[in-house]
Amino acid sequence: MSNKTKVVNAVSSEALFGMLPDDLQALMKTLDQKAYRAKQLAEALYSQRVTDVHQITVFPASLREQLKEAGYGVGLPEIVQAARSVDGTERYLVRLADGETVETVWMPDGDGGERGDGSEASLEEEELDGLEGNVSEFSPETSRKRDIRNMGALAWSGYRRATICISSQVGCAVNCQFCLTAKLGIKRNLTAGEIAGQVAAVLNRHGIKMGKDRINLVFMGMGEPFLNYDSFIKSVVVLAKHIGIPESRMTVSTSGIEPAIRRFAQEAVRPKLALSLNASNDRVREEVMPITRKWKIAELLDAVQTIPLGKREWVTFEYVLLGGVNDQPEHAREVLALLKGIRAKVNLIVWNPGPGISYTQPKPEDVAVFQKMLIEAGMPAYIRRPRGRDIYAACGQLKRTVELPEAAPLVAIAPSATHLA
Length: 421
Ligand code: SAH
Ligand code: SF4
Description:
eleven-stranded mixed beta sheet; alpha/beta; two-stranded parallel sheet; binds iron/sulfur cluster; binds S-adenosyl-L-homocysteine; disordered N terminus; DNA polymerase, domain 1; 14 helices
């Protein structure tokens, strides 16, 4: 093999991360290996979260070499830059094998307060947390009362949970007028391994051991997950069945791709759903989300109602409040009429500004009235606390920052330490 070929192989090696047990079995068969090697490989990829084939120490060196020779590498996306917010949120620039980048956000949470992470799991946890006390009161004394061996990295840092927000596409094709990611257009879909791999990279960075730390996931980063449906669903299986984050702790947000919502309703392994409603009638929605020309609100609500909800499950409707556009009492009344009879809850998101987008933020008093009107009519309504706004990590602010010099700069970091479980 010439040196040149070797380099090409090294750059474009086929990713093992993201392969399901059947794929791994088939691979081991082609390498003339016994089936148990596939199990060991899955364990190394998803429990130990190795970053290089050479870390699979349960394999003999010859098998590691064989894998490399056959053109396989772990293929985890790599965190190349990080920015840290005053609120503890971290935004990462994550590089994929072909050099494209996406953004991933880490939101540790310790205050048990309002949900800032968009996840639905955190709401249920907070109901329970009322009984448990609060880790923000974490002190050496309270820590002595715990079984120290059972404390994960999060508890040691004084947090009770963290939410990871992951991207599903490089850019986005949907073109919502208020969203910074839309400015990128769409470059490509992520593979299942690249979607789930963002989670593994972030868990490695923070030394998280599954089973000890409470991790929620939100598919609310760059891209429209339901326009990359198959990879999104495969990533859910990798994350739920292999990495160890139950789907009940995951929330996927969609701008409303009607046929995909209907497919989603049939899935066996299914995160919670959040629908970006963002307007109270088709006319306003078409203005702010041109995709409404394709699927009207009524069609989306119809599709949403085919989801067989679990006992403690509801559908979340996200509603970005844009000053003077959709934040008035008549809009709140329309939202109530739309959602009547649906097991719903509304997450109000104060619009986060971004360069080149001409909307204005709603007045605080309008936000308060809007929320109050919903609640008084019996509709649960929460105001999502903006996370990491100072580092452009909040909802709709994700854009590859390399192309956005006016956004808060990301700081180059040393390659993250890998913590093996
Ligand atoms: N593409 C999916 C998921 C990513 S966007 C979707 O649109 O649902 C996640 C959430 O952020 C959506 O509810 C979206 O409406 C909201 N959002 C987008 N831009 C925003 C901004 N500038 N300020 C506040 N929320 C925004
Ligand atoms: Fe895409 Fe969601 Fe942004 Fe709309 S809000 S452009 S669907 S990422």
